Amino acid sequence: MAVITPCCCMQRSPPLALVVALLCGLCPALAVDRPQVRVSGRQLLVDGKPFHMKGVNWNPVRRGGKHPEDLDFRGFVETDAEIMALAGVNAVRTYEPVTDTEVLDVLWKKGIFVLNTVYVNAADPIDTVVERMTAVMDHPAVLMWVVGNEWNYNGFYQKLELEAARGLLRDAARKVRSVDSTRPIATV
What pLDDT, on a 0 to 100 scale, did the predictor assign at position 9? Predict the structure, then answer.
């Protein structure tokens, strides 16, 4: 999570310089260290060290609610993150994208990474991943991007035939990679 401290940008023209620094990410005082995530063979490495995920699927919908209409990341994150941290959870996978950095901040403070699902339904244009990713791409809580949810069974929720679903998966993964080459891409 970024901590804003006075820096050279603010000494010149505080309001304008800070806005410029935030938008272009050039201010060294605003830099956030994102963990380096990579795969080596069959091992996930975070900052060069093996990372063993102890995770859950997280889909916060109130009792009696429906997914995705009643999805409420912000309304449940404080309580759920506390419970998950106490249980030793260090990663969550979502069924829908988390694009709220405040939600990610809470998870990050509890030591919980996010496998952020950015494309799950063939009814959405593939280009929707760009907006979903760029909203949170620089957040350290994002461990990897996820494309699909049991797409081989549900045809990306549009009953696509298997080969068409594979092609869509490939296209979506290529789009994700074109936006972020630093994190792994997973599919479920």
Answer: 38
CB atoms within 10 A of CB 47: 11
Please give the pLDDT value at position 32.
56
Decide: 114 and 78 in contact? Cβ < 8 Å. no
DSSP, res 182: S
Query: Which of 147, 139, 61 is closest to 97 using CA atoms?
Result: 147
Q: Kind and range of the H or E element at 19?
A: helix 14-24
Q: Which residues face 93 on adjacent strands? A: 57, 115
Cα–Cα distance measured from residue 96 to residue 124, given in angstroms and rounded to the nearest whole number? 12
Task: Find tokens 């609610």 and name the residue.
Answer: 65
> Per the omega criterion (within 30 degrees of 0), is the bond before 28 cis?
no
Residue ranges of the alpha helices (H) in 56-161?
73-86, 101-109, 128-134, 151-154
Query: Looking at residue 61, what DSSP letter applies?
Result: B
Which residues in the chain land under pLDDT 50? 1-31
Distance between CA atoms of residues 84 and 129, nearest Å: 27
Q: Are 9 and 21 in contact (CB under 8 A)?
A: yes
pTM value?
0.82
The two tokens of residue 137 are 């791409």
The CA distance from 139 to 68, in Å, is 24
